[in-house]
Write a structure and sequence with these properties.
Blueprint (H helix, E strand, L loop, with lengths): L2 H11 L5 H20 L4 H8 L2 H19 L3 H12 L5 H27 L2 H10 L4 H44 L6
């Protein structure tokens, strides 16, 4: 594959990125070709040494989505980053999707428990309208509401920590897929 074919394929695989980001990346790869030609390599040799444009694009998109998560942590950005990292290789389905589902289950169940506890006084109000009000129920539900608030505060801290930790895990995974961690 020559330089023009390589760059066209890479650009096509990077179509999800903005025009400016694609141009920056393509400029970098044009520089790789220029440096390789200065060293006496052919365009075909340079293309082979760089790898397949599709795999390069997958790695670049995964890194891009992880950067987006770090800038704006939202559930949509996290899901896009997870799917981009999963797309890097077959085994990432197990290595990334499994922990992601487990962490998502823990976070969602924690938040649901806190909301249920916080809303427990509504049950007392319903009993009041149904004529089945007991003062002990009111005190019990207020205690549950307080516990729910504490759980929510803990879940806020836990969600932030788990998100940051999972992002680090995804970055490690990308590094590993690209060729492993290099020790100096």
């Amino acid at each position: 594959m020559n330089k023009e074919q390589f760059l066209k394929q890479l650009e096509a695989f990077l179509k999800r990125l903005s025009l400016e980001e694609r141009q920056d990346i393509l400029q970098d790869y044009e520089e790789y070709y220029a440096m390789g030609i200065e060293k006496g390599k052919s365009e075909q040799e340079i293309s082979v040494s760089l790898g397949h444009p599709k795999q390069i694009a997958k790695e670049l998109l995964a890194s891009y989505h992880l950067d987006m998560v770090e800038q704006t942590t939202s559930s949509g950005n996290i899901l896009r980053a997870v799917w981009a990292v999963i797309g890097l290789g077959f085994f990432n389905i197990l290595i990334v999707l499994g922990p992601f589902c487990a962490l998502a289950g823990v976070v969602i169940s924690g938040w649901l428990a806190s909301v249920a506890f916080i809303l427990s006084p509504l049950g007392v109000l319903i009993n009041l309208f149904l004529g089945q009000f007991r003062m002990s129920d009111m005190f019990f539900s207020l205690g549950l509401c307080g516990i729910g608030i504490f759980i929510a505060m803990g879940m806020l801290v836990a969600t932030k920590s788990l998100t940051k930790g999972f992002i680090r895990y995804l970055k490690f995974n990308i590094t590993f897929v690209k060729g492993g961690v290099k020790h100096e």
